Amino acid sequence: xxxxxxxxxxxxxxxxxxxxxxxxxxxxxxxxxxxxxxxxxxxxxxxxxxxxxxxxxxxxxxxxxxxxxxxxxxxxxxxxxxxxxxxxxxxxxxxxxxxxxxxxxxxxxxxxxxxxxxxxxxxxxxxxxxxxxxxxxxxxxxxxxxxxxxxxxxxxxxxxxxxxxxxxxxxxxxxxxxxxxxxxxxxxxxxxxxxxxxxxxxxxxxxxxxxxxxxxxxxxxxxxxxxxxxxxxxxxxxxxxxxxxxxxxxxxxxxxxxxxxxxxxxxxxxxxxxxxxxxxxxxxxxxxxxxxxxxxxxxx
Length: 300
Description:
Blueprint: E1 3-5, H1 20-35, E2 43-44, H2 51-55, H3 60-67, H4 73-79, H5 85-108, E3 110-113, H6 134-144, E4 151-155, H7 162-167, E5 174-181, E6 194-198, H8 204-222, E7 226-230, H9 248-264, E8 269-272, H10 281-299
Parallel strand pairs: 1-2, 1-3, 3-8, 4-5, 4-7, 5-6, 7-8
């Protein structure tokens, strides 16, 4: 059964000027329900993550200052959001959602979080709309409590997964792969286990060929027991922060390739949504919806 993490707090109400990144979450659920891709039975509401799992990934000092709204002005500015208790609570729910999805993926083959993909959060800081790293936290949970030994992170957001790379820089059991815009944010990249920087404006054929070449090498090298897939849709041509040139269909075929290799290799996959900032909201919803449609079509 397809299990999808979703909570009303995902669409946390922010002050004017900060709402756009959040509005897609409720709309995405409404679209998937309306078209019949999912029913309410597919949805589950995660609880806030326990502090001990946060501290498996994030520094105690950072978490103390974040949770008590004590970050300095410069730190808050890097987040991109006004820092509030509600926002921290939202992050805790999202992170538990990805942990739950990882466990459901092990049972059903695939599971998706409507939010998440907060790959710019480091052990000791947040930035770029990311306060806590849900993939980092869920991967550590699976290592520490489910006793997995080989995890692969496939990050296809247009922005490098710099926080995830930093978190696992000394962890051989987690292999981080990031394929992103070479000249896009963050300007100072971290070192993933494998980074592929893409030129501005790259279109479907070239992008999909690079990914098609990379995926079999990743699975052969890592032999993962679980894949975390960051499926940001800010790679599409209309994204105001993306600068790449993928069509909606190209983005869909990207997802199909990732799912295909997971299925061929019998590896469960946990999906986090990541970024999407197109000027046309319909493009964001359609691109994200395709990820869910494919997961349902290919795995069930």
